[in-house]
Amino acid sequence: QVQLVESGGGLVQAGGSLRLSCAASGRTFSSYAMGWFRQAPGKEREFVAAISWTGGSTYYAESVKGRFTISRNNAKNTVYLQMNSLKPEDTAVYYCAADRDRGRLTTTVSWYESWGQGTQVTVSS
User: Fold this and answer.
1) Mind giving me the DSSP string for 56-95?
2) Residue 81: is its pLDDT beyond 90?
């Protein structure tokens, strides 16, 4: 398994931007498809975005499409989530996750085998 550590969360005003990073340990990072999820208090964890092992394919939740961008740098073992035009409803703990099926772009939580500890994003109105 790959170990994941998120960073870049914080407090931002509505309309602002943040970039989250997820650093992976291990030499097999490029073998994994990667995803970002979020979980707000009292709610289930929900899919945000996913990216294939090459970065050539991406998929987004409708709620973030056009505002968020997922990318990866396999040389740096890192996946990113650029978040623009943030809204208060984007407030949540954000998690990155790794899927061993490197070509699959899935929204299903249980298909991701490794998870980071999460980073808090708070958007004030």
Assistant:
1) --EEE-TTTTTTEEEEEEGGGTEEEEEE-S--GGG-EEEE
2) yes
